[in-house]
Request: fold
Amino acid sequence: MSTPFETRRPAEVMPIYRDPLAPHGPGTVHVLDQRRLPFEEVWIACDTMQAVWTTIREMAIRGAPAIGVAAAYGLALGARAIPASNSGPEFVAAFDRLCDEMAEARPTAVNLFWAIARMRQAARDAAQSGADARVSILDDEAEAIRAEDLAMNHAIGAHGAALVPRFGDRPTRILTHCNTGSLATAGWGTALGVIRSAHAQAAVEVFADETRPYLQGARLTAWELLRDGIDVTLIPDSAAGHLMAQGLIDMAIVGADRIAENGDTANKIGTYTVAVLCARHGIPFYVAAPSSTIDLATRDGSQIPIEERPAKEVLEVFGTKIAPPVKVRNPSFDVTPGELVTAIITERGVARPPYRDSLAAMFPTRGSAAR
Reply:
């Protein structure tokens, strides 16, 4: 039985959790169905890897860090279905097939592949152990991924809060795009985590883009901030430039699904537009992301695959048709050039241009793209 969502304090909202996975128990991963927010708070109980895969693919859970955590939990469930009689090599081969299947859930968020790589290595390390020990090792690795993400988010919040300007008797006015809060991570959030940390120190006023076509800003970010008691104003995506021109935005901060070696950042569609508008109006544009989102093996944004979502998401809103049956382009992400990013906030500190140098120095063991 899942814990009622309403019993958790707002800052502790999590998009996914699991019942204890004892070695001989089936275990269940619970995913908050974010497609139903803000009108209903419904949990999906998943007892197979394939069920978790479906929640990722169909966007019941979204946000790059949360996708990585969900994938790890899902693979831990999948390991339970591998026959205990399998030899070490047979176990690894079976687990690799599960990893390959999980990798097909979403193509853009690098956290998914990072989490899969962690779980692959854990499976190899566990291969020569007994069946129960293999399962336990993978359970522990999935839980470690969740705990590490939560700790990274709090560190990101602390580093980012130091960058938020103060204006005496008026709040700092921050624009954000999409959802980067507890719902998109293991908890607290990346860009929204910075806002939460800044709010704990001084007054902030948040302008949240609605984030068409999936409306993550309207449905999720506004909902989280309202629960936290943070002043939030919802705006159409197309209103951001007008507010900047009126001098009503002091800074913008967004999350990321993948950051290339040169600082090019893939994030929710519309982010590039926000960055261009910030550059035009001289407004700082920050990206907040954990190290699992930094992909130094990708040289620049041209190498980042961009997911195309179904036309239905543009033609309909909550099942109601809003357009004639025309052709649709529905890219889920865009790429913001690193030259438009004022700084990248990570759990290890703040990276500034040139990003090939600063990110490499911050993550020296990650390697770099082939030149």
Remarks:
- The first strand starts at residue 16 and ends at 18.
- The chain has two domains: 5-154, 164-362.
- The radius of gyration is 20 Å.
